[in-house]
Amino acid sequence: MANFSKRDSDISRLHPAIRKKVEAIQNQLRSEGIPFEVYEAFRTPERQAMLQAKRPKVTWVGPWGSIHQYGLAVDFVLKIDGKWSWDDSGTEAKFWNRMHELAKENGMTPLYNKKGKLIEKPHIQLIGVSATAMRKGIYPKGGDEIWAEHLGDLIDNWDGPGTAPPKPDLAPERPPLDLAILADLEIEDGIDLPSPFTDAAFDPRFQKFHSFIKRWEGGFVNHPADRGGATNMGITIGTLADWRGKDVTVEDVRNLTRAEADEIFRARYYAICRCGEMPERMAMTVYNCAVLSGPKTAIKFVQEAFNLLGLTVDGSRLTVDGILGRLTMGAVQKTDASVLAEAFMDQHEKYLRGLDTFSVFGAGWLNRMAALREFIDTLPKGAGVRPTAIMNISENKVDLQDILSIALSAREGDTKASLSKIAELVLEPDSADSSTSSRNKALLGLLLKNRLSRDDKSKDVATITTGPDGKPPLTPINAALGETIGKAMNGKKSVSGIVGLLLTTVLPRLGISGDIIQFVSANSEVLLTLFSLLTGWGMFGKLDKAIRLVGMVNERS
């Protein structure tokens, strides 16, 4: 099976000798506001042959003749207003010069000919390497298994003219069959040995996850609202054309075989997202999203979900760029898979709801997401670091019953220490808070602070403002919704609002299950707003009472 001819900008598989260098160059360019991005990193020999055949020429070397084939070079290209630009004239000229300066500062070099003339401005490579040496298997020291395995795969899959270079020593190599077993097989006359015509058919982990995808990707369709056009078994006409490297017809899509479709799924979605290296729950969520919304979108959701959980890698949040680099893969492998997968699916579902075709395909998408959540629950939970927001609750051992007791005891007016304790827990900043949630936390903080600072003198208000029946008369604000509701809520609005805000903020963070918890989690924004309004109503009521009190005091004086 040949390699792909598609451009690859992922720097995570490059030789370690340049990974850090490329990251450093890219970070410095961004800090200076120079809009360069990595256009191409590892390049397959098939793509090298295709580029060499282009007219006019874009490269003069053939397969295995470019440093790109060995993961020791990248192409930096300007990306302005979302479009790639090779323009090196005018104001852009200084951008290219600066990129070359940073390359040299980091032990890399642009490409020059023997006369010292710059040949390709985008191309920079490790200083001191040559394709001639590497075609003989002489590779730079310091290679790791990620780089070696990828280069080894390119070498194994090369079926073009000429001889591929030797594989790096670190590249995994399947041992040969035992000679005694082989001899026994050969003497069995007419034995029908299985033929591994596809990798997909012999990958049990992929098939396990793909069984879910096949249930939701049906047969041939050509829906007018589907931007992908004609589709069969989930493979669009554009994907099939790219896979085969030539234009295809609607009939070609209609006649697509299951074996070829499975191979495309495995190569273009499962493998390209490196799902085989992820915990099962994350592998399944990423694979499903890659099929439904594209591999780059899937990786972006990984990065967004990780950041929303308040986690960091080496003290920093992940850059949301859709590139599955070393940091992103490390984050996936070391984070609690069940927590990260849940956050990922929430992001994906939110994205689907925002698409302009949701009215047409939305019901099917949501049914698929619901089925995915059920399927995920059958997979191993995995291990890893749980988000700080969840760990704070469990580490402090705050039981649900404790929360309810503390919150409800606010009605008795004797919970200063308890409310201080729960306020410290609830009001802790959370990077996943929405703007509404943050605003209501701030409001809750002010209310708690006000309650904790009150002294016994506040009780005098009740004695002065009672009516002939011994009960406080309704003020205009308290009576705004009628006598019945006004009397029922009189003296209870602020406390009810505070309790509601506490419970709505705390319950979803306890890590427990139940219908009430699910309802609160799903409607937290609405509930927070409702209880904020209730608390605000109570505060205005108190202001109204205070005005009434001043008037009564003046009358008595």
From TrEMBL:
Residues 13-116 form the D-alanyl-D-alanine carboxypeptidase-like core domain. It comes from the Bacteria. InterPro entries: Lysozyme-like_dom_sf (IPR023346), TtsA-like_GH18_dom (IPR008565), VanY-like_core_dom (IPR003709), Zn_M74/Hedgehog-like (IPR009045). Residues 212-294 form the TtsA-like Glycoside hydrolase family domain. SUPFAM superfamilies: Hedgehog/DD-peptidase, Lysozyme-like. One of its GO terms (molecular function) is peptidase activity. Coiled coil: none annotated. One of its GO terms (biological process) is proteolysis. This is Uncharacterized protein. It comes from Paracoccus gahaiensis.
